[in-house]
């Protein structure tokens, strides 16, 4: 049995994978469906399931087909199924050819059309839209009205013009576009009105955002004027777009948190050139010198790929060296995996899986060591925490420090911004005691 025909769904579930931009896109798709009168469903019995996919990881498409298969119920029926996001963009009509269990395929630049695609699918049609129109989808999305968590995402820039040889983003998200100034400020205010106290500005290359002569630092300065907004963050940045104005913003704007995620990917100039990265190890470190001169307490996060085609032992040792020189508060490391259609996928000298495994283990051990050391340096200090959600145990609450560390406390309420004294640290979280409680 397939999905019900000639019946518009009453309930839906959006399941998002991957990056923060997918989380944002998932929220916007949910708002579109809310506006059509559908009700969110937490369980497996939703009439419509939207799989909002990510294409960065290895075998991403195969994992999507596995998820699709699990949506079939014991009686043989299934919900309406929409595959959205970057796998939808990359696979396109191939998804319909490979499985009859998908009704809708919609790319990340076309999801504003989701309600009409759902209406067509409810009539028994199999529909797809993976166009990348020049017109921005954002103007077609509803105004933000849902109750927000204390920390919210706001996409301000999409796409990428950098064409790193390992990356599918230019093909799945398109060219770099920046949303207009006024639209961003309006959405930020709507998020604040709905309960957000912290906003993270998102983009594939968020620091490439431009509106005329205004750059990201100007946008952050304007957002800092919004009275009820307590914290501002941004991610992900590219070294090529790390301008002096943005660096100065970390010095001058109190609401901008002392945290920078700036991927370097490798410490080897030879590998960086093969990746088509526009920086060298030295130019990257000089950027960090300027950032730390502006904000000495800033936490640095990054991304690393091990096992890129042709990576020698010496190239990998150069990566370990740059990690030691940077000193991360956290970082993300991955084994290289070929993405179909990217130049690196057909490069010679692909690295053996066992070599990549060993290198990744060594790199991750160093990153965890640095992360623990960074966290331990905060023990005995006082900082602020924005409480975001309940913890695992009764009475626990979890929030974030200015440096994006998770802090566990046993008092307060979700949405509170409190001062705490840090009393313990592990590699992944801190334990805090409310300042007034410890003083008493």
From TrEMBL:
- State its Enzyme Commission number(s): 2.8.4.3
The free-text cofactor remark is: Binds 2 [4Fe-4S] clusters. One cluster is coordinated with 3 cysteines and an exchangeable S-adenosyl-L-methionine.
Residues bound to [4Fe-4S] cluster 2: 160, 164, 167
Which cofactor is recorded for it?
Answer: [4Fe-4S] cluster
* Positions with a binding annotation for [4Fe-4S] cluster 1: 19, 54, 86
Tell me, in a sentence or two, what this protein's role is.
Catalyzes the methylthiolation of N6-(dimethylallyl)adenosine (i(6)A), leading to the formation of 2-methylthio-N6-(dimethylallyl)adenosine (ms(2)i(6)A) at position 37 in tRNAs that read codons beginning with uridine.
Provide the family line. Belongs to the methylthiotransferase family. MiaB subfamily.
Q: What is this protein called?
A: tRNA-2-methylthio-N(6)-dimethylallyladenosine synthase
């Amino acid at each position: 049995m397939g999905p019900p025909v000639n019946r518009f769904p009453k309930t839906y579930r959006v399941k998002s994978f991957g990056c923060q931009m997918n989380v944002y896109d998932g929220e916007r798709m949910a708002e579109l469906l809310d506006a059509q009168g559908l009700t969110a469903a937490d369980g497996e019995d939703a009439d419509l399931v939207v799989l909002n996919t990510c294409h960065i990881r290895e075998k991403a498409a195969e994992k999507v087909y596995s998820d699709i298969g699990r949506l079939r119920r014991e009686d043989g029926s299934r919900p309406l199924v929409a595959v959205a996001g970057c796998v939808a963009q990359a696979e396109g009509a191939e998804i319909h050819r490979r499985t009859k269990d998908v009704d809708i395929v919609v790319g990340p630049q076309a999801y504003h059309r989701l309600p009409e695609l759902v209406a067509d699918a409810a009539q028994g049609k199999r529909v797809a839209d993976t166009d990348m129109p020049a017109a921005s989808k954002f103007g077609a999305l509803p105004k933000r009205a849902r109750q927000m968590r204390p920390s919210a995402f706001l996409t301000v820039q999409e796409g990428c013009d950098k064409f790193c040889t390992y990356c599918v983003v230019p093909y799945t998200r398109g060219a770099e576009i920046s949303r207009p100034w006024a639209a961003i400020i309006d959405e930020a205010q709507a998020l604040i009105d709905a309960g957000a106290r912290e906003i993270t500005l998102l983009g594939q290359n968020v620091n490439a955002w431009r509106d005329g002569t205004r750059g990201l630092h100007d946008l952050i300065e304007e957002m800092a004027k919004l009275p009820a907004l307590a914290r501002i963050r941004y991610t992900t940045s590219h070294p090529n777009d790390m301008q002096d104005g943005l660096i100065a913003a970390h010095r001058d704007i109190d609401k901008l948190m002392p945290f920078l995620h700036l991927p370097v990917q490798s410490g080897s100039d030879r590998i960086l050139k093969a990746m088509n990265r526009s920086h060298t190890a030295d130019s990257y470190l000089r950027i960090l010198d300027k950032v730390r001169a502006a904000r000495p307490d800033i936490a640095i996060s990054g991304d690393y790929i091990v096992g890129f085609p042709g990576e020698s032992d010496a190239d990998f040792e150069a990566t370990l060296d740059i990690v030691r020189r940077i000193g991360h508060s956290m970082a993300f490391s991955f084994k290289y995996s070929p993405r179909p259609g990217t130049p690196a996928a057909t490069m010679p000298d692909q690295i053996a899986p066992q070599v990549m495994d060993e290198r990744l283990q060594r790199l991750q051990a160093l990153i965890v060591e640095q992360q623990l050391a960074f966290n331990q340096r905060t023990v005995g200090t006082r900082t602020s925490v924005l409480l975001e959600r309940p913890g695992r145990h009764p009475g626990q609450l979890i929030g974030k420090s200015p440096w994006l560390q998770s802090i566990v406390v046993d008092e307060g309420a979700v949405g509170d911004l409190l001062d705490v004294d840090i009393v313990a640290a592990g590699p992944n979280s801190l334990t805090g005691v409310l300042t007034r409680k410890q003083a008493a």
